[in-house]
Amino acid sequence: MTLSIIGTGKIVQEALPVIAATDGIAISSILARQHSLDKAQALAARYAIPCVATDYAHILADPAVDTVYVAVINSVHYDYALRALQAGKHVILEKPACLSFEELLRLAEEARARQLMLFEAVTLLHLPAFHLLREQLLPQLGTVHHVECNYSQRSSRLDRYLKGDVAPAFDPAAGGGALMDINIYNLHFTLALLGTPLQATYECRRGYNGVDLSGTALLHYPDALALCTGSKETDAPSFGLIQGEQGWLRIEGPVSTMASITLALRGQAPQAITLPPVSHRLAPEFAAFQHLTATRNYDAMNRLLDHSLSVMQTLDTLHTR
């Protein structure tokens, strides 16, 4: 995989050392807007990236680039991804993939028609701990009746927002807000375990510009209810809790990192589960993207893409309720 990095923000700065250390990935270029050019040049120097560009057309015209990693503000994901697919490039999209189901469906159709890879970078889906939970631990709980997830973390940009300085993370037009930025991890977790809900509603606390600062999604399933809470205005212990007829399972910390898991089955003492180690939370997903692209595993890619479409469809429902 020869990769071009689109963006210079916080997630790019965290991901670059992981990508650079991933076997089978070569970083060929980084794209920045003019005002971020100095930052891009510094990153290029640090990670030996050969090319710094400010023109996306230059990246898309480069035959050496086979994949782009779109890590810019949410509201432009669709445009960047569509242009890349139309130029014959595979695409990795930071979460949320798009702002609507319609946008992601259009990208999915384009990718599938062109036999290209399209991935949403949802870390938790690729963590070894998540696979252990879904495949080995969850079946021990029997029928699941309740799931609760809370990811509450006061944003470092909140004080600026309260003073009237609205960053994209607090701009509804840019795809900001608690649901899209932080609670989306809880939705991915829940839908990956239980599937698409029958009904979904969202109650939230909104700021002065209409952005949701915190909120809870209620998801209805035939045999279960799920509560997904996310807050960008308060701190609280984050966790995931799954309750089944034969016991319960608790994740300490955000479900996106799977820091620790405790399993308690009926009649047995709770036990701490030994989790497979990872070098960095982002390492498994980029290794997976590289492997699936190299092996042209479209079946696996399409399963991931169908899951992302399901989450985006649920988000559309939550936004309209």
Q: What does this molecule look like?
A:
- The chain is an alpha/beta fold and 321 residues long.
- The protein has 2 domains: 2-115, Rossmann fold (3-Layer(aba) Sandwich); 125-281, Dihydrodipicolinate Reductase, domain 2, CATH 3.30.360.10.
- Helices cover 36% and strands 25% of the residues.
- The chain contains 11 helices and 14 strands.
- It has helices at 10-20, 37-47, 56-60, 77-86, 101-113, 128-137, 158-162, 178-181, 183-194, 283-294, 298-319, and strands spanning 2-6, 26-31, 51-53, 67-70, 90-94, 118-121, 144-152, 199-206, 212-220, 225-231, 239-244, 247-252, 260-265, 271-273.
- Strands 8-9-10-7-11-12-13-14 form an 8-stranded mixed beta sheet, with helices on one face. A 6-stranded parallel beta sheet has the order 3-2-1-4-5-6, with helices on both faces.
Short description:
The protein has 321 residues and is an alpha/beta fold.
Topology:
Layout: E1 2-6, H1 10-20, E2 26-31, H2 37-47, E3 51-53, H3 56-60, E4 67-70, H4 77-86, E5 90-94, H5 101-113, E6 118-121, H6 128-137, E7 144-152, H7 158-162, H8 178-181, H9 183-194, E8 199-206, E9 212-220, E10 225-231, E11 239-244, E12 247-252, E13 260-265, E14 271-273, H10 283-294, H11 298-319
Parallel strand pairs: 1-2, 1-4, 2-3, 4-5, 5-6, 7-10
Antiparallel strand pairs: 7-11, 8-9, 9-10, 11-12, 12-13, 13-14
Helix pairs in contact: 4-5, 5-11, 9-11
Structural class: alpha/beta
- The number of E-state strands comes to 14
Number of domains: 2
User: Would you identify the CATH H-level superfamily of the largest domain?
Assistant: Dihydrodipicolinate Reductase, domain 2
Strand fraction band? 25-35%
Query: What multimeric state do the chains show?
Result: single chain
**How many individual helices?**
11
What is the CATH topology of the largest domain? Dihydrodipicolinate Reductase, domain 2
The CATH class of the largest domain turns out to be Alpha Beta
